[in-house]
Amino acid sequence: MALLKSTKILNGVGAQAPVLAVLQLRASSWWTEVQMGPPDPILGVTEAFKRDTNPKKMNLGVGAYRDDQGKPFVLSCVRKAEAQIAAKKLDKEYLPIGGMAEFSKACAQLALGPDNEVLKSGRSITVQTISGTGSLRVGANFVSRFHNVSRDVYLPKPSWGNHTPIFRDAGMQLMAYSYYDPKTCGFDFKGALDDISKIPEKSVIVLHACAHNPTGVDPKPEQWKEMAALIKKRNLLVFFDMAYQGFASGDIDRDAWAVRYFIEQGHNVLLSQSFAKNMGLYGERVGGFTVVCKDAEEAKRVESQLKILIRPIYSNPPMNGARIASTILSTPELYKEWLVEVKGMADRIIKMREMLVSNLKKEGSTQNWQHVTDQIGMFCFTGLKPEQVERLIKEFSIYMTKDGRISVAGVTSANVGYLAHAIHAVTK
Amino acid sequence: MSIFGEVPQAAPVAVFKLTADFREDQNPRKVNLGVGAYRTDEGQPWVLPVVRKVEKMIADDHSLNHEYLPILGLPEFRSSSSKIALGEDSPAIKDNRVGAVQCLGGTGALKIGAEFLRRWYNGTDNTKTPIYVSAPTWENHNAVFSNAGFEDIRPYKYWDAGKRGLDLEGFLGDLESAPDHSIFVLHACAHNPTGTDPTQDQWKQIADVMKRKSLFAFFDSAYQGFASGNLDKDAWAVRYFVSQGFELFCAQSFSKNFGLYNERVGNLTVVAKDQDNLNRVLSQMEKIVRITWSNPPSQGARLVAITLNTPELFAEWKDNVKTMADRVLLMRAQLKEKLKALGTPGTWEHITEQIGMFSFTGLNSKQVEYLVKEKHIYLMASGRINMCGLTTKNIDYVAESIHEAVTTVQ
């Protein structure tokens, strides 16, 4: 390796003894051997989009909601909460390691329902985290340190790209269970059950609570019930990732149904929540991590250990977003307004799905596009092949990830026709 | 049967437990000299006037939204923060070999730096590379580096309890005997917990040894501006090392000097030999950030960036910082004066020689216990006091209590 590099130096600098060149190299920087990190595939899409000068260009890459004008959307309830908070002229003292207590309480209530027996008995602990990623990271670290009976984490195939490196870096081993059926662009229920039935006991299984990322394919309630029973039989540790509560169907209770059902069935789950999408608080980094325990005493022990995990990462979490979320969740008028706004976002997504399908039909497409409206949430696994995606990018300036995933949030009534036209062009 | 049946109860973090105990204490004379947060002379938290101003600007600007920041953070924040550390006219910045990662406070900056070093510093597995932290040091340093995977964390001599000052000879000795390429965590100014900083001349000696032995300098800068009241003065050590050709990391916190504690505003400044090396380092740090918190919180970074990049606001901020530093200096002077007036045994010069928020009083654990239990004055078992907890109203009580502790408890 060093010799190769010294050749480079020789070419640049002229005749020098290789050994000297290597010494110079070593003396020059600590970081000479540091490789260039691969570009993030999703952000890469946005970068390419930015450089494109085509006025019709569309960014269907990153998962952030856009309104029908294609603009970022700051919720009205968020602005109101912000104004309320500003008027209070609060101080900026450190939050506790586990975050704002009022936020954690409201966060858990939102997920579990305010009358949940778990909350009444105090047998769960929720800590405020750095949005969904931070929550998963703390959860992964917790599992790695304390779930000594297994190193295996089972992800659905496919899953959010960042799940794998997070769990791996925490010291876990990544495995997969069947989930997406490319033939139907739907849920491979049989495949999932088959795979889950073979997962070794006590392994960790990650489930997307709703609006599966990247496919948009969710199990139906009856399917969730069977999965819950099987997972119970296999004695697996359930880790729910819920990044889209409210955002999927427009109904926060409906979107949390699977989480609540599993808990009812006796699963003491781990749960990651994000408020990035459903409150549009992306950059404020608002999230929660919950551990449902056997009893309140265990919850206290678990809480103490979560703090020990959190302190050496970032000491304590940021206040701004949590305060906004907490204000909204605990102020009745704001909460009501939020429910309406989150439904508004979900409804627009659903409408765009419908418009895309109807426009494809109008274009004369004979393909089956049912999955576009069957799928739910921000993302749609179109079923487009890499070559087709390539063409969409190159010929139409429509940007998406290579797996054919589009962020429906990037679709508007103004550009859905163009999108349908382009998709038809590459699939006919 | 629960999977978490065996999870033991962890001990609480000492400094937070102290504050919790203080809160529960009903005694009207109680004083909190524990946690490192600034307090006004009324004993209240202080949101800097410039911060309130900029907060309002941000709130009134409806063109701003809450979209994700880039993984490495807000560009204007990163560059202006690095300028604060290295100087407006830093040659390293002009050479395009300075970069930064916006992080969650100083802790987050240390974390990202530590994770990077463990993966990439000297070969691709640095779990055995020694990390040296001062004896004593901020209690979280150890955990940050051990959680990042470093297995060999060692103390370097620093505090001389006997003379209540810097053990330079011990420090230099540990530098000499450290294996080459070891990593040293250096406090840029206002050493926590001792408040004892090397002089410029002593820093030069330290740098000499470090250069000779290829020791890596990882600066922890949590009090720039807060220590002397002057930003440039407090950054002298970091800038000196840069001028000596060191590649280094500087973990910056804006918790204290901006009073933005709970917004988690930090910056990991990276100084590399050249832009190419810098870019590769940043690309790898990006990967680490992505699996830790994805991207950093925007509110605090916006606040700092606007302040640093707007001349009038920048001037106002420097003024606010000086206000805080001056009050601390006043409390130091008054405490020493009162102890001397009381005839409290021992020398108390260290109270004014030490710098920044903290003072290592030299009180032993029994005396500390006496202060906490009998006098309801809360301080760390190490004898560390937060000068910000002193006010013109409680300083007499504290001085008298220290006097009592020293004269009646051995």
TrEMBL record, chain A:
Assembly, per entry: Homodimer.
Q: State if Cell division is listed as a keyword.
A: no
GO BP annotations, alphabetical order: L-aspartate catabolic process
Any matching Pfam family: Aminotran_1_2
Q: Which GO terms describe its cellular component?
A: mitochondrial matrix
Enumerate the spans annotated as Aminotransferase class I/classII large domain: 56-423
What's this protein's name? Aspartate aminotransferase
Which superkingdom is the protein from?
Eukaryota
Reaction catalysed by this chain?
L-aspartate + 2-oxoglutarate = oxaloacetate + L-glutamate
Locate the coiled-coil region(s) and give their ranges: none
Top-level enzyme category: transferase
Tell me which PANTHER family the record gives. Answer: ASPARTATE AMINOTRANSFERASE, ASPARTATE AMINOTRANSFERASE, MITOCHONDRIAL
Needed cofactors, names only, are:
pyridoxal 5'-phosphate
Q: Does the keyword Transferase apply?
A: yes
Keywords associated with the record: Aminotransferase, Mitochondrion, Pyridoxal phosphate, Transferase
**Main localization (coarse):** mitochondrion
Relay the record's extra comment: In eukaryotes there are cytoplasmic, mitochondrial and chloroplastic isozymes.
Which GO MF terms does the UniProt record name? L-aspartate:2-oxoglutarate aminotransferase activity; pyridoxal phosphate binding
Localization terms from the record: Mitochondrion matrix
TrEMBL record, chain B:
Which reaction equation describes what this protein catalyses? (2S)-2-aminobutanoate + 2-oxoglutarate = 2-oxobutanoate + L-glutamate; 3-sulfino-L-alanine + 2-oxoglutarate = 3-sulfinopyruvate + L-glutamate; L-aspartate + 2-oxoglutarate = oxaloacetate + L-glutamate; L-cysteine + 2-oxoglutarate = 2-oxo-3-sulfanylpropanoate + L-glutamate
**Which GO BP terms sit in this record?**
aspartate biosynthetic process
Chief place where the protein resides? cytoplasm
Which top EC class applies here? transferase
* Superkingdom: Eukaryota
* The keyword Phosphoprotein appears for this protein: no
UniProt keyword terms in alphabetical order: Amino-acid biosynthesis, Aminotransferase, Cytoplasm, Pyridoxal phosphate, Transferase
Record-listed E.C. numbers: 2.6.1.1
Q: What Gene Ontology terms describe where this protein resides (cellular component)?
A: cytosol
Q: Which residues form a coiled coil?
A: none
One Pfam family named in its UniProt record? Aminotran_1_2
Cofactor annotation: pyridoxal 5'-phosphate
* Record's subcellular location: Cytoplasm
Which positions fall inside the Aminotransferase class I/classII large domain?
A: 29-402
Q: From the Swiss-Prot or TrEMBL record, what is one GO molecular function term?
A: pyridoxal phosphate binding
Q: Which NCBIfam families does the entry link to? A: PRK09257.1 (NF006719)
Q: How is the quaternary structure described?
A: Homodimer.
Family statement drawn from the similarity comment of this UniProt entry: Belongs to the class-I pyridoxal-phosphate-dependent aminotransferase family.
What additional remark is attached to this entry? In eukaryotes there are cytoplasmic, mitochondrial and chloroplastic isozymes.
Name of the protein this chain belongs to:
Aspartate aminotransferase
- The protein's gene is named LOC113056857
